[in-house]
Write a structure and sequence with these properties.
Elements: E1 6-10, H1 15-24, E2 31-35, H2 42-50, H3 59-68, E3 69-72, H4 78-86, H5 95-103, H6 111-119, E4 122-124, E5 126-130, E6 137-142, E7 147-149, H7 152-156, E8 164-170, H8 177-184, E9 188-191, H9 196-200, H10 209-215, E10 219-223, H11 238-249, E11 255-259, H12 263-269, H13 271-278, H14 289-299, E12 302-306, E13 309-314, E14 317-322, H15 324-332
Parallel strand pairs: 1-2, 1-9, 2-5, 9-10, 10-11, 11-12
Antiparallel strand pairs: 3-4, 6-7, 6-8, 13-14
């Protein structure tokens, strides 16, 4: 197993995929998973309103925690754990969020939950580290100057042509010291796929996170999303990703991890899926080899390609997702 410290940063949809892929390499024993805690939509948003703004969002840490539970003597009980974490009562309250709230500590984060899970026999391979242990909400300003309050507005405005230009937190809150320590001592940091602003960049808004990122000796890689969001990453090139990252993180990453298929080829091979996404103003984020080579040269960083693009059938229709097993093949070469 790899002894160097691995950090992932993201939300509840992207980080579990990257975490699973890292474990599937067979070279990673533990992950320090920094989690976004500013969600304000759905059941999480209602819960935070009921608490008068005194709680962080538990939804993303809960999903990321589950991705760190990979087996142990209680491996046969993982499905039971899933049911516990996702169960909703008649009022729509999520049991997992109740559990995370009960055992959360502003000093130790989710350490008690991790220890209890180990006591039950689960193999918890790492730590979930909230970006901050203090409650706050995302604000963002669009290119036209419109201002919005709350992470749920990122979802509400996702089809807008008025793209996000800047994000901040209200109130300003300090970073979780355990998260900044993990960044400073990391050997590799993977910024996960997922909502670019809400799940990735928001983690670096707490005071102290950017400073830690500037001080770390770790190499930093972004796993780019496979599909664009109209208000966030419309027609993005590799250079656009780097520009936004450098603007919000205070430093340039060392590389991008992108699909080994261009938008043109993806749409030719998956025309029905592409048309479905286009109804939301979304398009496949892939580039041809000439574009990738040019971007590497002009940006002065590494662009690594993967064959992990996968079409998954769901009850709502086909969606595009990273295949963790195939993504693992690419990540293994970076470890």
């Amino acid at each position: 197993m790899l002894k160097e410290k691995i950090v992932t940063v993201g939300g509840g949809s992207g980080s579990p995929i990257v975490n699973e892929a890292l474990f599937l390499t067979g070279q990673v024993d533990e992950i320090n998973a920094i989690a976004a805690v500013f969600d304000s939509g759905g059941a999480t948003g209602r819960r935070r309103l009921d608490s008068y703004g005194n709680e962080i969002a538990y939804s993303d840490p809960m999903r990321i925690f589950r991705s760190l539970c990979t087996g142990g003597i209680a491996a046969n009980s993982l499905e039971t754990l899933d049911r516990w974490l996702t169960h909703r009562d008649i009022r729509g309250k999520v049991l997992g969020q109740e559990i995370f709230n009960h055992f959360f500590s502003s000093e130790t984060g989710f350490a008690q939950i991790e220890e209890d899970a180990k006591a039950f026999g689960f193999d918890v391979r790492g730590h979930v580290l909230p970006a901050s242990t203090k409650p706050a909400d995302i604000n963002f300003v669009t290119r036209s100057g419109r201002e919005f309050f709350g992470e749920h507005e990122l979802d509400g405005q996702r089809m807008s042509k008025d793209m996000v230009a800047k994000i901040s937190l209200t109130p300003e809150v300090p970073a979780n010291e355990k998260a900044t320590t993990a960044i400073r001592t990391a050997a590799l940091i993977f910024l996960s796929c997922g909502s670019f602003y809400g799940s990735v960049l928001s983690n670096f808004l707490p005071i102290g996170m950017k400073e830690a990122l500037r001080e770390t000796p770790a190499k930093i890689y972004l796993v780019t999303n496979l599909v664009s969001t109209r208000s966030e990453t419309h027609r993005f090139t590799p250079g656009d990703f780097i520009h936004v990252l450098e603007k919000h993180l205070g430093r340039k990453p060392d590389g991008l991890i992108v699909p080994n298929i261009s938008r043109h080829d993806f749409e030719r091979q998956n025309s029905k899926v592409a048309r479905r996404y286009s109804l939301d103003g979304s398009f496949f984020l892939g580039w041809d080899q000439k574009q990738i080579a040019s971007s590497q040269k002009n940006l002065g960083l590494r662009i690594v390609t993967h064959d992990a693009t996968n079409i998954v059938e769901t009850s709502d229709g086909p969606i595009v997702r990273h295949d963790p097993a195939r993504l693992a093949e690419t990540l293994k070469a970076l470890l």
